[in-house]
Design goal:
Length: 189
Amino acid sequence: MAGIVSSAPVGVENLVYAILNEGETSTYGTPALVSPAINVKINPKSNSETLYADNRAVETVSNLGEVDVEIETQDLPLEVQAALLGHKLDTTTKVMSYEADDMAPYVAIGFKVKKGNGKYRYVWLLKGKFSEPEEEHSTQENKTKFQTPKLKGTFLTREDGKWKYTADEDSGFKEGASWFNKVYAPVVA
């Protein structure tokens, strides 16, 4: 097609989170950095049904279900774990307390994906909860092997039906400088 300029993704950066205000459907706290991003994996689940009539498929419908998200970062600071997983971090001693009834809040996550042409794709996932990460620690050997944390979450559609916003610089999007100031919301005229 003429006029479409596109390029393949080559990297992910600026992974942030914002807590969805309790009892609200689309207002969030101020975005904060998770940690330098290594990988973001988004796996939407959908259900499809096909209607058969006159001995053939005549109609099909797909519905979005939950969206599995996995983030891998350089580190997962205790402050971020407390915010994303609902734990208590003592501000004086800097010791985190893990309790069986800690509840992770709903959050949005945002990031940008660098493309091969130097332009960016901007993304916000709007409502999800993360679960306790697996931990594995290995001894240091004669060759350094980094041990980076992965956090898994389940994202859903908000009450307004929205679950994600995406914008591409190479399609004319020009507001990348302010994308991470707050969770994106379209301007209503």
